[in-house]
Write a structure and sequence with these properties.
Binding site for a divalent metal cation: 48, 127, 131
Helix content: 40-55%
Oligomer: single chain
Family: Belongs to the DinB family.
InterPro entries: DinB, DinB/YfiT-like
CATH architecture: Up-down Bundle
Number of helices: 5
Strand order of the largest sheet: 1-2
Number of strands: 2
GO molecular function: metal ion binding
Keywords: Metal-binding
Largest sheet: 2 strands, antiparallel
Distance between the termini: 35 Å
Length: 167
């Protein structure tokens, strides 16, 4: 978990930069891509990242501006990408101004259990990473390029001078 606000902010910046690269790649047409009938489309998952877990973050006591969770996903990919950029900056500003290293260890109730604020914010990042994985699968199905978050994506191996791993 996080023991300092500085380490938390650095991790938020790193993870949100990766998510932002993916969101900036989306096209308006790709927003309708689904895994199969009855599943949430790519645009819904992308929009969920914009307001994702306001409840979890607000449960920590953080106050920041973000689109309401009940809003329908926009039909324009650029609108989603820009809303994510703004929301993440608002979250980072809130963390920097509303939390201290000591406050990260305060206990709040989350999902009916006591969590430290640090644990809740770590959980928030894991939640984003989970949905980012869903996003990359749907992006591939939509024919969009993806990036590797923790190592090269298949398309990126050549750029680092190596062949892509063979199956």
């Amino acid at each position: 978990m996080f023991t300092t606000v500085e380490s938390l902010v650095k991790e938020f910046q790193t993870e949100s930069a990766t998510t932002q690269q993916l969101l900036d790649t989306l096209t308006d047409e790709s927003l309708n891509q689904t895994q199969a009938d009855g599943y949430r489309p790519l645009g819904y998952i992308a929009w969920h990242l914009v307001h994702s877990d306001r409840g979890m973050l607000y449960g920590t006591g953080l106050k920041f501006e973000a689109p309401p969770a009940g809003n329908e996903p926009p039909k324009q990919a650029a609108t989603i990408a820009e809303a994510y950029r703004t929301t993440m900056q608002n979250i980072i500003n809130a963390v920097n101004t509303q939390l201290t290293d000591e406050k990260l260890q305060d206990v709040v109730m989350m999902f009916g259990r006591p969590w430290t604020i640090s644990t809740a914010l770590y959980g928030y990042l894991k939640h984003e990473i989970h949905h980012r994985g869903q996003l990359t699968i749907l992006m591939r199905q939509a024919g969009l390029p993806v990036i590797g978050a923790y190592g090269p994506a298949k398309e990126q191996w050549a750029a680092i001078g190596m062949p892509a791993p063979v199956m």
